[in-house]
Specification:
Shape: elongated
Order of helices and strands: HHHHEHEEEH
Largest sheet: 4 strands, mixed
Distance between the termini: 92 Å
Low-confidence stretches: 173-178
Mean pLDDT: 84
Number of domains: 2
Strand order of the largest sheet: 2-1-3-4
Number of helices: 6
Length: 178
Amino acid sequence: MENVDLSEFFITKDQMQNFIDGLSAISEGVYEKDFNIEVFLNRHLGILKGSKFLSYLKDKSVNPSDTQGIKLFIDKFIQDVSTLPQVAITIAFEPEDSLLHNLSDWFLTNIKRQAVFDIKIDKSIVAGVIIFYNGKYFDYTVKKIFQNIKIDIPTNKPNVPSAPAQSHPTPENIIIAQ
């Protein structure tokens, strides 16, 4: 797929799947009697995304009254977006839309590709982020920093073997000193 910003349609894996589901329903409905692309887009994608996708179709020279052309374009679009690289991100909180848009913009600017984010929430990381992308794992979490500090701090305890557990005195284990 060409280097295009699709963040107005989806950023996360879940959003992408919902968008694909809506487009699939539209693709299946193109042969219905009285098919109207605007009505189907609004019904399956919502008014805002439907309007933006209609503009996207027109920008790609797809005639809104050509049902066969719409079907071919949507089917190819679904196939292409399904192959977008996915970035697994673990953070400690539910991200706001502005953070997701910033992440998407960063990938477009620095990696030169649209990426889809598979967001996981794990409060145990405290703060920071874990990123898994293109076979590489990056851990920039406070939890990791705390674990490293714990490992690096000397214990200052003498290395004395622990004493065996004390048991109650019985005739067999009583020693009388002389």
